[in-house]
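Issue 218. Parser rejects a valid record. Input:
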Amino acid sequence: MTPAHASLVLVAICIVAAWQVGVIPVSAIQMAVGPALVPAGIVAMLSIVAVFYSYGAWRGRQPDESQAPGQTALAGSQWRMASLLSGGMVFVVMVSFAGFVLPATLCGMLIARAFDAPLNLKSALICGSVSSSFWILFSKVLGIGIGPATPFGF
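Output the parser choked on:
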């Protein structure tokens, strides 16, 4: 993949992320700091970085390692990237009908798989406890409406 192609992928990811921040529901109470503030700030910063990278890529200032002689991609790099991106897509697609915890657990497992973690019971328990902790923190402690933990309304 050339830097120009990578920059297009980065911009596309930023557009999807901005869309996701835009669908975060507004809090029922009027707060100075709403639930979309931090995600919007992160997406804005990443978008700025993507724009600078894209500018450098289109001007030919980013190193193009796809054309380097004698170099090949790391073994399994395409599967790692597919696992990483599919983790995010699983969460985005499933969160509206399956609650928060199950999609976040599957997302975490697929992201961990991209970094060579096995897909087993231990991985499921770790990712499930992390996603449950995040749901409790945001939904119950902070009162941010991120939806039910399960599709059964818990």
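Fixed in the parser; the record now loads. The mean pLDDT is 85.
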